[in-house]
Design brief:
Length: 86
């Protein structure tokens, strides 16, 4: 599953993944600035170095709807998406 940050926005505003199953995210940062992929409700945070793609550790989540954000100051307002786990 690919998640891309571009122009201080998530290209994917909504992601759907299966519940209770490890899911691997490929985090693509096309910006010349750092971001992070953070799901606070699940205690999951992965740094996204500038202009790089990183393979995030597998995420396993129970069913629900969670918010993912970038917590870099000033980014959270624009960089918010919904993760649907079902
Ligand atoms: Cu950011």
């Amino acid at each position: 599953m690919t998640v891309e940050a571009k122009n201080i926005q998530w290209v994917q505003k909504e992601l759907t993944i299966p519940a209770n199953t490890p899911v691997t995210f490929s985090l693509v940062n096309t910006d010349p600035t750092v971001h992070n992929f953070t799901i606070e409700a699940l205690g999951y945070k992965v740094d996204m170095p500038a202009s790089q793609t990183v393979a995030a550790p597998p995420l396993t989540a129970p069913p629900g709807t969670y918010e993912y954000v970038c917590t870099v100051p000033g980014h959270e307002l624009l960089m918010t998406g919904q993760l649907i786990v079902q």
